Amino acid sequence: MSEQIRIPFSPPDITEAEIAEVADALRSGWITTGPKTKQLERELAAFLGTPRVACLGSATAALECALRALGIGPGDEVITSAYTYTASCSPICHVGATPVLCDVAPDSYEMDYAQLERLITPRTKAIIPVDLGGVMCDYDALFAAIDAFGGAFTPANARQQAIGRIAVVTDGAHALGSVRHGKRAGQVADLTTFSFHAVKNFTTAEGGAVTWREGLFDSDELYHDFMLMSLHGQSKDALAKTKAGAWEYDVAFPGWKCNMTDLQAGLGLAQLRRYPGMLARRRQIVARYTRNLADFDVSILQHYRAADGSDACGADDAAARADAGQESSSGHLMLVRLNACGRQLCDRVIELMAEDGVATNVHYKPLPLLTAYRNLGFDIADFPNALAQFENEITLPLHTKLSDHDIDEVCRCLRQAISQAKAEGAR
């Protein structure tokens, strides 16, 4: 066995087109937030079908800014999933609100919407659902849970009042390009955030964005507020100050520093031109994995659904995304659960696959298992379904640099590793 990784988990898919855009930014002399960032915002809004997009330094920053834009802070409660990465929850703490964790439904990565309904109180100001792996949540069930709350909703600012209920602020970090019932991620929730981190389908190296649904807010005003928050509360960014005689500025409030640069945006502009093809390739990869794993005793996250609920990973991608009856994920993560196996066996499988040169991962360790959230008083015993999902989960490589042969090799290696781990007595 080799210790050298021959099939990496999630390398960035960078071509000469991305390099050329970054080089163009370098040659232009404009490398911080500038014309390329503004162009990327316009093109992303057109791609998503949303009024505007604000590009920021990360999805975490975007989520925090979204909560601040809604006036959420101390005394408020915000509900999110127990089965997610810390970045879905830490912004709640950053704004001084109280995080409330909801268990997932049995054999699901989505929140248990029946439990969600019971967790809502008069202090609940927002819910942060997670489009895990790029699969959009059941928003019909989510909004029904909100509507079922019989208590009064007291808005804290004009934007909460415009929504008229508990806000839905989606962690769509994985979901750029996902479609559910004819609507793209970004068009359903009140606000949606996306991640452009190096391991995401669409990358700007680091970075993220926030968008919002049509007709809800004054888009120019909200966008302006996001820009203020991202640059110290300063009334003019560097681009605006370059205009002759336009040095004068004000600081409206002590803001933060989480703007996107034109170097990052250059990467994004090239990625966006390629993105439909990248989404189509991800569907092909999921289809091949699905065929190869058909005789394994595993459960696979369903990324693509036909109108009748059947698997549609083999469908034509462009046609499927245009069909209002179909659901299409961004195909971000290949989440696999080894049925009737425990964490010990799964961890041994991960070790054996790494020894064979195949990198894997785990998505995710439930928040109540992490020190930060245990210290906030959360106990994993209260989240049995999240624990059950975690206990036998392995994430296989899923990226657009995989060849068909690579996928076959991953599955061969997985089969071999499971057999060996069981032979060793792992459980």
Write the layout of secondary structure elements.
Blueprint: H1 16-28, H2 35-48, E1 53-56, H3 59-69, E2 77-81, H4 90-94, E3 98-102, H5 113-119, E4 124-128, H6 139-147, H7 158-163, E5 167-171, E6 179-180, E7 183-184, E8 191-195, E9 208-212, H8 219-230, H9 238-241, H10 262-292, E10 298-300, E11 304-305, H11 317-322, E12 327-328, E13 334-338, H12 343-355, H13 371-374, H14 384-391, E14 393-396, H15 404-423
Parallel strand pairs: 2-3, 2-4, 4-5, 5-8
Antiparallel strand pairs: 1-9, 6-7, 6-12, 8-9, 10-13, 11-12, 13-14
Helix pairs in contact: 1-10, 2-10, 3-8, 5-6, 10-15, 12-15
Description:
The longest helix has 31 residues, at 262-292. The protein has 427 residues and is of the alpha/beta class. The protein has 15 helices and 14 strands. The mean pLDDT is 96. The strands form 3 sheets. The protein has a 7-stranded mixed beta sheet with strand order 1-9-8-5-4-2-3, sandwiched between helices. Helices cover 38% and strands 13% of the residues. It has 2 domains: 16-268, Type I PLP-dependent aspartate aminotransferase-like (Major domain) (Aspartate Aminotransferase, domain 2, 3-Layer(aba) Sandwich), CATH 3.40.640; 276-423, Aspartate Aminotransferase, domain 1 (Alpha-Beta Complex), CATH 3.90.1150. It has helices at 16-28, 35-48, 59-69, 90-94, 113-119, 139-147, 158-163, 219-230, 238-241, 262-292, 317-322, 343-355, 371-374, 384-391, 404-423, and strands at 53-56, 77-81, 98-102, 124-128, 167-171, 179-180, 183-184, 191-195, 208-212, 298-300, 304-305, 327-328, 334-338, 393-396. Helix 3 crosses helix 8 (219-230), helix 5 packs parallel to helix 6 (139-147) and helix 10 (262-292) crosses helix 15 (404-423).
